[in-house]
Amino acid sequence: MIEVRNLTKRYGGTVAVDRLSFTVRPGQVTGFLGPNGAGKSTTMRMMLGLDRPAEGRVLIDGRPYERLTEPLRRVGALLEATAVHRGRRAQDHLRWLARSNRIPETRVREVLAMVGLEGVARKRVRGFSLGMSQRLGIAAALLGDPPILLFDEPLNGLDPEGIVWIRNLLKALAAEGRTVLVSSHLMGEMALTAEHLVVIGRGRLLADTTVAEFVTAH
Ligand code: ADP
Ligand code: ADP
């Protein structure tokens, strides 16, 4: 479970996140919906301890991210600017991540299959399309088999087949009892992906409801 409580972040005079509170529960995909610039990435970065809030806090299973033991095994994340060494082969990138986090390297083959990249495991990341890079980022997030997953715009850049593949993966991961938060600026995309919706605009909470209720009300 993720608890966001009264979270506020300012950049100079801009209030990026404004007294935001919501809870992300396990067992379903929660969509994090809002237009570009609404504050989704900033909120997710604060969940991961990469940005410090001006006010408020985020608790992941009751603790701030920094106080989790073995954080990569607790929380998997795909952010917009995830660093990948572009000259490396996809499988070598994942092996390196596995080794540096004491995750068995046998897991690399599993996560490549989960995202549908086993056919290009030996290809260099430099030649990857945006969609393939997204899949690789998702594979990296899954390496430690974490119970909590945060994905910032995971369907961006994917072709229609990739969207269906990754959408089904997200749903399956949630159905296994994981806590899954997925951001998007597209309502139609979220309606097909999520069961619960947290909607923000200009850093503020606009709705926190089921997709079915949100669609009926809007
Ligand atoms: P979203 O992910 O919903 O597109 P962001 O969290 O990226 O929104 O941005 C929220 C607001 O904060 C925007 O006004 C954006 O310009 C601003 N912002 C985000 N990151 C920075 C930064 N590092 N420096 C200054 N302003 C930022
Ligand atoms: P450079 O040698 O170009 O300065 P670095 O080795 O410092 O690059 O790494 C750049 C990025 O790639 C960093 O985010 C680092 O965490 C990551 N990285 C470093 N070594 C590896 C590796 N073997 N496989 C995958 N990523 C790596």
From TrEMBL:
The UniProt keywords, alphabetically, are: ATP-binding, Nucleotide-binding, Transport
The entry's family comment says: Belongs to the ABC transporter superfamily.
Which segments cross the bilayer?
A: none
Full-sequence range covered? 1 to 218 of 304
Spell out the protein name for this chain.
Answer: ABC transporter ATP-binding protein
Stretches assigned to the ABC transporter domain: 2-218
The Swiss-Prot or TrEMBL record annotates one GO molecular function as:
ATP binding
